User: Fold this.
Amino acid sequence: MKIFAFSSLCFFFFFTLSLHRVLSVNHSSSPPRGWNSYDSFCWTISEEEFLQNANLVSQRLHVHGYEYVVVDYLWYRRKVKGAYPDSLGFDVIDEWGRMVPDPGRWPSASGGRGFTEIANKVHSMGLKFGIHVMRGISTQAVNANTPIFDVTTGKAYVENGRQWYAKDIGLTERKCAWMSHGFMSVDTTLGAGKAFLRSLYQQYADWSVDFVKNDCVFGDDLDVNEIRYVSQVLRGLDRPILYSLSPGTSVTPTMAKDIHHLVNMYRITGDDWDTWGDVASHFDVTRDFATANMIGAEGLLGNSWPDLDMLPLGWLTDPGSNDGPHRYGKLYPNEQRTQMTLWSMAKSPLMFGGDMRRLDEFTLHLITNPTLLEINSFSSNNMEFPYITAGLQSRNQGQSWQSITLTDDSAPETHFMGLTSCMDSKAEGWFIKALDEEIEQVCWKESLRSKNHEPFCLYKRKALLESDEKMTYKQQYKGNLRLLGTEAMEFCLDASPKRKLTSKEFKRGSFSPCRLDSNQMWELNNNGTLVNSYSGLCATINTEKATAVPGGIRSWIATGRKGEIFVAFFNLNPARTVISTMLSDLAKALPSENLSDDSCTAREVWSGEDIGVITQSITMAVEVHGCALFVLNCTSH
Ligand SMILES: *[C@@H]1O[C@H](CO)[C@@H](O)[C@H](O)[C@H]1NC(C)=O
Ligand SMILES: *[C@@H]1O[C@H](CO)[C@@H](O)[C@H](O)[C@H]1NC(C)=O
Ligand SMILES: *[C@@H]1O[C@H](CO)[C@@H](O)[C@H](O)[C@H]1NC(C)=O
Ligand SMILES: *[C@@H]1O[C@H](CO)[C@@H](O)[C@H](O)[C@H]1NC(C)=O
Assistant:
């Protein structure tokens, strides 16, 4: 197997860097806005497709403030058979272990030019250019043990009289949990670890990159050391590079307080896709970040913004796919308005994810709605507003959303597979079940309370792959099992200690194409434990109540730069709901100078309806999963 591909100009590099003057450049004080390739192309985008999209962004969205065009992950991966998001060995890296755009997909990058030509083209369109990068160093560079480039000397990094290599800095025990074959952290306590990160970000600056989305350093994969050091490098560069962190699974405001001043935006949720559950799950965490005053807090050379993720609207692909755009988003129009309204009221960065080449009129109008964009850029005092009631306004006065949130006690249970010590009795309970002479299953003892009360079973993989013929592997993995999720499935169960087998993470790679990888090798012990060759840990099944999709009603409030007040009502219930608030309650949330409590004039944005003068309360029937957005003028005359 070819371990890594050198770019043809790998012996050529620039070292003008140490001469650069450090300019003090500030980032804009509004949430960044732009387009990102992930929702429509996953990792597969080509130069041509990217430039087509960028060109359309410049023609149709730039005037609305969409400014950054961002290439999402794995631009260095060759698009060939066998390559997929967590594959190993398909990446183009240079002699210093740095990722280089795959010249097969990015022809202008050949000859060691990197993204320079693309960035220049994007700049000539009036836009800014962004790239996604993973944490630390690639496993491929560590396996190849590439030397480390020192940007200050333009040569290999030397310290204490010796050269340093990838194996010196790669922390193999700190792999990226959601891409465990691809990348690992580097040791930032070593001069060589710092030099490596510096060589990456200096190169991005040399390519004229304006935005980096740094993945697998935040949330479940938090690496504050890397974030801190990268931020320091970016601060010292001669061009402003916006710093974005992703993803944000399990993030809390407390966690974000360690990093908000080092970055410009950071995800506060896992990936958002086009399901109602994904939209609804953003309300609680967004409220918590607003309450903690994190919206527009101090950031790297400017402000930092809690990021609710890209907008998967329009023409899309699927999560973790090897294919480009091929389907329309599944959210209903009301649900899309709710998403756009929450993202705007919470001042999230707005990164459109649909393929620009098939942008429909509905989506275009949604993402360019002038009131929403005004709120997103310029509103203040943004927060969840608790003083709303459901039902007839004359009853239940003062009832707040907490007491009417629907709690669903009948929420189904989910089962997820976890890993535990093999000495743990919770690991005992696996047995072999023969379906017929051909097919055997490995099953878990308890019948789980699923629909059909069947035990949870995995399928033993029958035939060996062609590539399995290698004798060494046969010896090494003798007696090991590989386990499939379904009989027909060509994906094998991976063991990753941090992953739960929920539908979402399933897509993130708990199963991946079957290969001879110790991560996929399992052995059934006599006492009913199922041990994984990679980690030496044993599989167990845990049962959890599925998190119900939040229901109830919600409201957000903000003030505009002309003194107007924005009030949004959201109906998360599966039924049309009348939502009200008293005008006198607005003063409980907002500075009172522009409020008169007797009357306001109001306009509703989505219907375009001019409501005229309202007194005492605002009331509106809101459709299933829909929202209402009022612009109020309550200035006392
Ligand atoms: C950038 O912001 C800092 C802090 O707010 C300020 O001191 C500095 O003058 C600003 N620089 C520019 C170029 O605007
Ligand atoms: C089951 O057997 C394995 C292998 O002999 C052993 O390592 C493990 O501790 C045992 N586990 C329990 C719970 O008895
Ligand atoms: C609000 O109403 C007052 C009085 O009619 C008017 O002067 C002001 O311009 C209005 N403000 C906005 C933001 O429309
Ligand atoms: C009140 O309204 C004026 C304009 O009418 C505006 O300049 C000011 O910022 C508003 N104050 C608040 C707290 O929104």
